[in-house]
Amino acid sequence: MKWLVACSAFLIAFLFGISLVRSGYSPSLAVVDPRVPDVATVQAVTDPSVPESETVYRRLELPTPAPIPRIASAGILNLRAELRPEPVYPAAAKAVRATGTVAVQVIVSREGEVVSASAVSGHPLLRAAAEKAARQAKFRPTLLSGTPVMISGVLTYNFSKLGPF
Length: 165
Description:
With 165 residues, the chain is an alpha+beta fold. 23% of the residues lie in helices and 32% in strands. The protein has helices at 2-22, 91-95, 124-135; strands spanning 42-45, 56-59, 71-76, 81-83, 100-108, 114-121, 138-139, 142-144, 147-159. The strands form 3 sheets. Strands 3, 5, 6, 8 and 9 form a 5-stranded mixed beta sheet that branches. Strands 1-2 form a two-stranded antiparallel sheet. Strands 4-7 form a two-stranded antiparallel ribbon. A hairpin with a 2-residue loop joins strand 8 and strand 9 (147-159). The longest helix has 21 residues, at 2-22. The N and C termini lie far apart (92 Å).
């Protein structure tokens, strides 16, 4: 039984050592994640004239990741818009008497400008007009803990019969 335990321990150590070699592990190189506090990020500087026992380390400058923009979900934005222009009723939609509601998903910048507008429901002939109107909408900046944030929400546009067809 002891022989079996010793063999399995040797096999695990052998396989673990092989996996370290395949992964590029090198005991003379130390790189530490800079996001972990109180740990220096270092890299071994290899110089052929310096013996291995006197390895020199230097600080490694890793690029900081770009901050992920915070986007708050705001639901239906129709009443929050300071300026919400009405869409132009497309002639092709009038010709086929297309009516209905178009929902447009928008992303609003920190300054209150619409940066993205995409129709998510509604008649296909009415969607482009609703998206164009949504891109022209203006909002007050939304504050979260005193900081302006981007918001995501939906603007709805109702297309009804406008006069005789």
